[in-house]
Write a structure and sequence with these properties.
By secondary structure, the protein is mainly alpha-helical. 59% of the residues lie in helices and 7% in strands. The chain contains 18 helices and eight strands. A two-stranded antiparallel ribbon has the order 1-2. Strands 3-4 form a two-stranded antiparallel ribbon. Strand 1 and strand 2 form a beta hairpin. The radius of gyration is 30 Å and the shape is elongated.
Length: 466
């Protein structure tokens, strides 16, 4: 079963069970780039529902569309906000037209839902029109970015939660490992002692710092251009519509949205997307470093550092029996690399606008949602499948510390740099322990003095003593 719909380009046959119409169908047919429809991001559909509802409420209050039509549109928007009819959003993420196909997809779905609610049928736009009612006083150029801002806020909140949970997992392990002595390293060389707990806390802290960066970026998203219409002059909109529509949107969402002081600037500006993408990239950079560290410390199990054990999740080789790889840190690294690359996409697209509009917003949309979804999943996987199950090889790490030449640094205030250097050189070339050289052979310290200097507490939190 099908129905015939038409626009100024001609007639098209639309499946009768579809709530989208002819303009959506043209967009669906024209763009096969990612082969992924916008329905894959539920927050984007929900956000469009909120924006169109705010618009209908404002237009009803201003008397620019019939009250019964506005009420039906509001009801239809509530269906989208509730998560229904997501499968009707079929346009590809990447599209020409700056998102017009997606905006019309939303307008047609809402109108056909509203038409049925009013007792009419899908495809009969005499009572409720996608352009004249659902899109009254609007343009793709203000509704698409406003919906995008809202959806990015919702999606970034999911990312924040996954990062917060990951940080908590690192802090929990930091407490568990607070008494595990190990050697710190710089330049991949022995440095001075620390605890494994301090190392895990450091990882958690460096990741936690990105929470602030993401939240700061979110503030930029709260400034929108709703009511700007085509280029920021608010053409076709009631003079009171921009302020009223954004007020309604803020009330509906509980987010303090406000319109830009310069709607023309806001209609072409993509700075908020650049800020958010940069924040996600910064998180990806931090996660890459931390995962590299974990892979190094888990290297082995017998011929590497082997300071920690990662959960064994799957066989690591099709040829080497018994081999197990650090697959979760590896996949987290790959997710991070993808997010870093997508940030370049956002940067290039944001710089590619001309005059009063940036027509590259669809690829920015795709890049940001992909990056945040991937990073959220990566953080969750790293926490549940790796960090939560890490164990320490405490005996090995303690032996490595006491066999290291690096602990001579603790003697420098007492014996001087030159003497300590010659002893470290001797240990390195002879394989002797520092204890053997300092206490047994050179007798520079008594055993009591050695124990006082090289006890656990002083090793991990050294105190300067004159």
């Amino acid at each position: 079963m099908s129905r015939i719909e038409n626009d100024f380009l001609g007639d098209r046959e639309v499946p009768d069970d579809c709530y989208y119409g002819v303009q959506t169908l043209r967009g669906k047919d024209n763009f096969h780039i990612t082969e992924m429809p916008m329905s894959q991001e539920p927050y984007f559909v929900i956000a469009f529902g909120y924006v169109k509802k705010a618009a209908a409420m404002a237009n009803k209050e201003l008397g620019t569309i019939p009250a019964d039509v506005a009420d039906a549109l509001i009801w239809a928007c509530d269906q989208l906000i509730a998560g229904k009819y997501r499968d009707q959003f079929v346009t590809d993420w990447l599209q020409g037209g700056a998102g017009t196909s997606t905006n019309m997809n939303c307008n047609e779905v809402i109108c056909n839902l509203a038409a049925e609610h009013l007792g009419s049928v899908k495809g009969d736009y005499k009572r409720v029109s996608p352009n004249d009612h659902a899109n009254f006083g609007q343009s793709t150029n203000d509704t698409y970015p406003t919906a995008l801002h809202l959806a990015l806020l919702l999606r970034s909140n999911v990312l924040l939660k996954s990062v917060e949970d990951l940080v908590g997992a690192y802090y929990k392990k930091a407490e568990e490992f607070k008494g595990v002595l190990k050697m710190g390293r710089t330049h991949l060389q022995d440095a001075v002692p620390m605890t494994l707990g301090q190392e895990f806390h450091g990882w958690g802290f460096t990741i936690a710092d990105e929470l602030k960066t993401i939240r700061e970026a979110q503030e930029h998203l709260k400034v929108v251009n709703l009511g700007a219409t085509a280029i920021g002059t608010s053409v076709t909109a009631h003079p009171d519509y921009p302020a009223l529509a954004v007020k309604k949107l803020a009330e509906l969402t509980g987010i303090d949205f406000k319109n830009s002081e310069d709607l023309i600037a806001a209609t072409s500006d993509c700075g908020a997307y650049v800020a958010l993408s940069s924040a996600v990239k910064s998180l990806a950079v931090k996660l890459t470093k931390v995962c590299n560290d974990m892979r190094l410390l888990a290297s082995g199990p017998r011929c590497g550092l082997a300071e920690i054990n990662l959960p064994q999740l799957q066989p690591g080789s099709s040829i080497m029996p018994g081999k197990v790889n650090p697959v979760i840190p590896e996949v987290t690294n790959q997710a991070s690399f993808l997010a870093i690359g997508l940030d370049t996409t956002v940067m290039l697209a944001a710089s590619a606008g001309q005059l009063e509009l940036n027509v590259m917003e669809p690829v920015i949309t795709f890049a940001l949602f992909t990056a945040m979804r991937v990073m959220s999943n990566a953080c969750n996987g790293l926490r549940t499948k790796c960090v939560d199950g890490v164990t320490a090889n405490a005996e090995r790490t303690a032996q490595m510390v006491m066999n290291s030449c690096g602990i001579v640094t603790l003697l420098k205030p007492h014996l001087g740099y030159k003497t300590c250097s010659t002893m470290a050189h001797e240990c390195y070339h002879t394989g002797k322990s520092l204890h053997q050289v300092v206490v047994e052979e050179r007798k520079l310290l008594t055993q009591e003095e050695w124990d006082k200097t090289f006890n656990l507490q002083n090793l991990i939190a050294p105190k300067f003593v004159q």
